[in-house]
Amino acid sequence: MAAYILRRLLLIIPTLIGILTINFLIIQAAPGGPVEQTIAQLEGLTNNALPGGAGGGDLTSGSANNGSSTASSYRGGRGLDPSLVAEIEALYGFDKPAHERYFQMLGNYLTFDFGKSFYSDKSVIDLIIEKLPVSISLGLWTTLLTYLISVPLGIRKAVKDGSRFDIWSSTVIIIGYAIPNFLFAILLIVLFAGGSYFDWFPLRGLTSSNFDELSLLGKIGDYFWHITLPVFASVISSFATLTMLTKNSFLDEINKQYVLTARAKGLTEKGVLYGHVFRNAMLLIIAGMPAALIGIFFTGSMLIEVIFSLDGLGLLGYEAVINRDYPVIFGTLYIFTLIGLLMKLISDLTYVMVDPRIDFESREQ
User: Fold this and answer.
1) What is the CATH code of the structural domain delimited by 124-354?
2) Is 50 helix (H, G, I), strand (E, B) or coil?
3) Which of 51, 197, 249, 312 suits a disulfide with 135, CB 3.0-4.6 Å?
4) CA angle, corner 138, sides to 135 and 141, nearest 5?
5) Which UniProt keyword terms apply here (predicted)?
6) Contact criterion met (CB below 8 Å) for 243 and 157
7) What is the pLDDT of residues 6-38, one digit of tens each?
8) Hey, CA dihedral for 112, 118, 120, 121, is it positive or negative?
9) H helices present in the chain, as ranges
10) Alpha-carbon gap, residue 187 to 244, rounded angstroms
11) Does residue 59 have a pLDDT over 50?
């Protein structure tokens, strides 16, 4: 097993490099980077500064006015002093060729040096650490509630397969699965956050402005008051798949020969279900928990964080893409990919812990 773990850890390196390389190439081809955005802002300031807004943004130095070339490879930057454009490029690290920036990025990332954000003047790792508790809060409660709802519901649907309960609960599950979590989040805001009906829950943030002044019980209550709607919106889109997976897994085990043998020995249905079926049926569900957790953390929470103004990793990534904050984009991508690959390895190891009969190492020989 140690050799299998070592191989999987070594495979993480080329996987990370491949993902970073693809995204680096995409970023190079995408228009509207930080240099272009800064040039556009300067053009706007120049136009506003001139009488009547005229002038076309001709922000040039004396040398430029005397006839020197002011050509620029950036759209909107042909009226700017080339030295000013060069300073902007150096500010954002675009004064070097693409291949030099690429290899410098790989070297820095090996030591977890992700640089500083272009706009917040903080290191990327500090930003990630600052935003992580919000995403962890949302992800942990969503995962916990999803399993607490889905596993018992899936077991009951398997036991009552074909009954009225199975039919109407499947209808509810299909509707919940069909509604995107961001759309359901908006519906919750309209209904319960002062939209058009009730004003029971806050609309923004994870805590109130006077959180530090509250007692311990007050802080706990305030925290759950704020987290209720975001977690509920996330659970709706997560529990459907797990519920049906649980049901199908139990149905598959219930129809096997060893269950018929256990019943023939006189065991009660509850004894058969929880004494024999449960462990085998829960193999896929338990082993998939790490992957489900990381998926909820870093993919499902982005729109929820944006809608409810939760200052977490999802909102950080969204703002970084909008602002073309490349150090934050690549830094968060690197961290998310690394954690995802490690969680996948932990998921495989969980399979072995739940069922020792599974041996990944022997399969690769």
Assistant:
1) 1.10.3720.10
2) coil
3) 312
4) 140
5) Cell inner membrane, Cell membrane, Membrane, Transmembrane, Transmembrane helix, Transport
6) yes
7) 888 888 889 888 988 988 888 777 766 666 767
8) positive
9) 2-29, 34-49, 62-65, 82-91, 98-110, 124-159, 164-178, 181-192, 216-236, 239-254, 257-264, 269-272, 278-281, 283-287, 289-295, 301-307, 313-323, 326-354, 360-363
10) 25
11) no
Q: Please say whether the dihedral angle defined by the alpha carbons of residues 209, 215, 220 and 224, taken in this order, is positive or negative.
A: negative
Q: For residues 117 and 329, what is the distance between their CA atoms, to the nearest angstrom?
A: 9
| CA-closest candidate to residue 34, choices 322, 318, 316 | 322
* Dist CA 359 CA 303 (whole Å): 39
CA angle in degrees (0–180, nearest 5) for 208-211-216: 130
Task: Give the C-alpha separation, 180 to 237, whole Å.
Answer: 7
Query: Which of the 8 DSSP states describes residue 94?
Result: T
**53 DSSP assignment:** G
The band of 50, judged by pLDDT with boundaries at 50, 70 and 90, is very low
Residue 135, helix vs strand vs coil: helix
Taking the chain, what is the end-to-end CA distance rounded to the nearest angstrom?
12
Q: What is the token pair recorded at 52?
A: 């009547």
Q: Contact, 19 vs 337, CB < 8 A?
A: yes
d(CA 189, CA 199): 9
pLDDT at 58: 41
For residue 310, what is the DSSP state?
-
Spans of all domains in the chain: 80-111, 124-354
